[in-house]
Amino acid sequence: MKITIKSTNIKLNPTIREFIESKISPLEKFIKIFNNKGYRSPSNKFKTNLEAFVEIEKGTHHKKGPFFRAECQLRLPGKVIKSEASSSNLRVAINEVKDELQEELKRQKGRFIAKAKRKSRTLKRNLKISPSARFHKRERNLEEGI
Q1: What is the pLDDT of residues 18-59, one digit of tens each?
Q2: Quick one: pLDDT at residue 38?
Q3: Are strands 51-61 and 2-8 parallel, antiparallel or unpaired?
């Protein structure tokens, strides 16, 4: 997954970058089911076009002091999932964003699986053998075994 980070009024140091990547990159395991538009490389690994755009910002409330805002957009094949949170601590805001995205991905995954099951049920229903079909039993020879 490709993670792009944009910061406003904050210096993006390596510790913040590592923290954001450690929180956002594990979400890729929920996204594997949506990867029907990915393609396989010659080494037979899936290559995906998944992108995460993370924006962090430091602002001030009127008479309340500084606050931090974190926003993340996950661009999946055919979908965009967005989450936003603000808090007095940057790490708390990033954790809230991660939790919201994780819940939404689980919900989308459940919908995707339910849709696939519905399709397979209708296919099974349509492929039922008609009661008028007849199957004749074939007698066995001794050479075939028991």
Answers
A1: 999 999 988 888 777 666 544 444 455 555 567 899 999 998
A2: 46
A3: parallel
Q: How far apart are CA 93 and CA 10, in angstroms?
A: 14
Rounded distance, CA 120 to CA 123, Å? 5
Q: Give the bridge partners for 61, in sequence order.
A: 65
CATH of the domain at 57: 3.30.160.100
- The secondary structure of residue 128, as a DSSP letter, is P
Residue 145 domain-assigned (yes or no): no
Query: How many domains, the chain?
Result: 1
Angle of helix 14-24 relative to helix 90-126, nearest 10 degrees?
20
In this structure, what token pair is assigned to residue 51? 């992108």
Query: Does residue 58 belong to any structural domain of this protein?
Result: yes
> Which sign, positive or negative, has the C-alpha torsion 34, 38, 43, 44?
positive
List the domain range (segments joined by +) for residue 65.
2-114
Which tokens go with 29?
């395991």
Q: Which two tokens stand for residue 106?
A: 């689980």
Residue in this structure with the two tokens 């993670």, named with its chain if needed:
3
3-class DSSP state for residue 46? strand
Dmax (CA) for the chain in angstroms is 95
**143 lies in a domain?**
no
